Amino acid sequence: MTVHFQPKVSPESCPALVLNADFRPLSYYPLSLWPWQDAIKAVCLERVNIVSQYDRTVRSPTFEMRLPSVVSLKTYVKPSRRPAFTRFNVFLRDRFTCQYCGCGDDLTFDHVIPRSKGGLTTWENVVAACSPCNLRKADRLPVDVRMWPASAPFQPSVHDLHQNGRLFPPNHLHHSWMDYLYWDSVLEP
Which one of 74, 95, 140, 155 is separated from 120 by 20 to 30 angstroms, measured CA to CA? Predict the structure, then answer.
């Protein structure tokens, strides 16, 4: 099926907010969004309900549909109780800030107790660090270089990451999403 957009509308400008069957977003950061193609496919496969729509339409010779702006899954997906240990989630836990100097540029992650000294790659031993701080600390212990993380590393809960994610709302928040999100900031007209 070939789908045509109305003039001057790019597909990237019409993502769908994906809600679980309980009408909560699957995730806040990154915000659970699907490209318009995935949203339409899920609608056609009857995996989601359309909750809200854009004023924009897609058409093919035999099909016409307003683009979904909010969809909810028909089947509840049980959220994970513990977030995955990923570089992104470490940065999110540490609020995208170097735990040694406080800057937010050129982030890497640092083993507080270096791996060369028996440190493990775990939530409790890894922090966000900018490249200059990471290079300065190198494979030494914090006491040896007088560099201590601003916050002790810990294993966050999904709730912790969602709370931190709300501090970094995406650039695009469509007005139809606001009943399902916790941001009170700038709305896109």
Answer: 95
